[in-house]
Design brief:
single chain; about 270 residues; alpha/beta; Rossmann fold; six-stranded mixed β-sheet; 10 helices; 6 strands; about 45% helix
């Protein structure tokens, strides 16, 4: 376990009080990290995962309960892949870190079709690698850097493109036994962008994505949804506040799903037909 006493003189990132409050409130409300947890932080090197790692490190130092954490970056096994700047960053801030090497890129060459959609494929493979690392190293929780903007975008993408009402839960248990948590689920993307900028962090963008080397369709759905929400928020400044509230006030018996209705005028078998 990381020793709190030995880290008092370490270098710390500057975190706004507002972001700390949002993070702390989400952890308390959804009971994400608690006593005795071993948390694996998925570190891609982007602003979201870097923010998450530093917030968890801050929590580890000041929380009234004890837990362990470590950051890990999934290496796809591509030529020229370089995470040295992330290693230096974690060393500078005394953050436990490791790169987990995989053969995801080589496997994709054999299993992906030309011009096929790639986001879900690499996301699934990356998540599988995280599960494997967590299980092999005794972590019971995996922390991801998804924020409120991601959750809202996913909700509308699922509704408009997939015909389903679905978003991103703060916590769920994966089939392989570990719990996946999203401690930034109530934070806005702009807060995380500001955090990285104010601290002068170097971040990784799409250039590290293996799909940049494969001839595939670009993911237009999320980009279109993000732009639509951006324009909508210009007209309704409290848009995300209202949407966040609506995610906590769900009247699922008001939709066209008979299984969710309370009916005393029909028997159970008829209701499930």
């Amino acid at each position: 376990m990381q020793n709190r006493e030995s880290q008092k003189n370490r270098k710390w990132a500057k975190i706004s009080k507002k972001l700390l409050r949002v993070f702390g409130r989400s952890n308390a409300k959804y009971r994400l990290i608690g006593e005795g947890d071993r948390v694996l932080v998925a570190l891609s090197g982007g602003k979201d995962s870097l923010s998450l790692l530093h917030l968890i490190a801050n929590m580890h130092q000041h929380s009234p309960f004890n837990f362990e954490y470590q950051a890990v970056t999934i290496s796809y096994g591509m030529d020229g892949e370089d995470y040295s700047f992330l290693k230096e960053h974690c060393k500078e801030y005394s953050l436990p870190y490791e790169v987990y090497k995989t053969e995801i890129y080589d496997i994709s060459q054999e299993t992906m079709r030309e011009n096929s959609s790639f986001c879900s494929y690499f996301s699934r493979m990356r998540r599988g690698a995280l599960y494997t690392y967590a299980i092999e190293h005794g972590f019971n929780k995996i922390a991801l850097g998804h924020h409120l903007d991601d959750a809202v975008e996913s909700f509308f993408m699922n509704m408009l493109y997939n015909g389903s009402l679905r978003s991103m839960p703060p916590i769920y248990k994966a089939k392989r036994g570990v719990h996946v948590i999203r401690p930034l689920i109530e934070a806005r993307e702009e807060q995380l962008r500001n955090f990285a900028t104010e601290n002068g962090f170097i971040t990784i963008g799409d250039e590290a994505c293996p799909t940049m080397r494969i001839q595939t369709k670009m993911p237009y759905a999320r980009a279109n949804t993000k732009e639509w929400l951006r324009e909508l928020e210009k007209q309704h400044s409290n848009l995300f506040t209202t949407l966040k509230a609506s995610f906590s006030h769900i009247h699922d018996d008001t939709f066209l799903d008979p299984k969710r209705w309370i009916r005393d005028d029909i028997d159970k078998e008829e209701k499930n037909d």
